[in-house]
Write a structure and sequence with these properties.
alpha+beta; Rieske Iron-sulfur Protein; 2 iron, 2 sulfur cluster binding; four-stranded antiparallel β-sheet; 10 strands; 345 residues; single chain
Length: 345
Amino acid sequence: MGDHSHGDPNTSGTVATAGQGQVEKFQDPGLPPHRPRLADKDPRAEKRAERQVAILFAVSIIGTLLFFVGYFAIRLDESTAISTLRLQNMLLGLGTAFAMLGIGVGIVHWAKTLMPDHEVAEERHEVRPEEDRQVAEKMIGQILDESGIKRRPLIRNTLLGAGVLAILPAIGIFRDLSKNINPDVLRHTMWDEGVRLARDPEGTPIRAADVTIGSAFHVIPEGLNDLHEGKLNEKAKAVVLLMRLNPEDLQVSPGREDWNYNGIVAYSKICTHVGCPVALYEQQTHHLLCPCHQSTFDLTQECKVIFGPAAHPLPQLPITVDSEGYLVARSDFQSPVGPSFWERG
């Protein structure tokens, strides 16, 4: 106890000073004792765990095969029933999930039940360039020995099979993005001079008087619903968003003065990033948003990109009205619709 009679904090003991009450350093407790797992003690448990890992890898193989069936065996066309489309989506989703989860869970289960789990503490040491190769070779050999892949052919073979098959769906998908696809496919749509703008999906034409400030319409070319072949492909290229703003809010570029009608503008609904449908319109800010990757387009600046990964503005459809007051296209889009990796004029 310090002397409290004078109330001096430096001598009374009420305030700690340097050197008082130093705590001794903690000693390194070392590694905890190793607790062997059931598979370490029981050969039957080890074999059971090996079979479980192999089954998980086999599940991955089955998932990849399901993906193949959904992607290659089920073909879609204009007459495809909605139930067939749902079946394909289910096979693609379940196949991808099983293929990825089978490998991931299998490797985790393998590591937790069969690979050595001893904790190791190693001192840092200076790596000498001459010894790099030998050290790396030793490490790889140690990893192979500890994983047991050399002496567990069932796990090794199922893992190889699952891994090889798992990358094939990606190859099949990327095959559809061949460089040989003609970019002019997205350069021309059903829109042409005099084609009326119609409501999607009804197909009824739209009068200019029906479009009020702040409203938004999902639009297709009139006559699209009458197609018997290629309807979905044509719709995928030609879908449009139609909105009306105060004409004073529009910033019109030279040469586009007659592309809108009294503040009514029409833009492609296909995002220029990866082709998702741009379907969200903020009336107060005049922004169009893509829900996939949050690309944002400013309607007052001819759908200029103001946020997100899209690299190009949405293509504008030039419009006017006919003698009956219906909105019609002046021409086709002046630039190709769709993602920006397609060629553009």
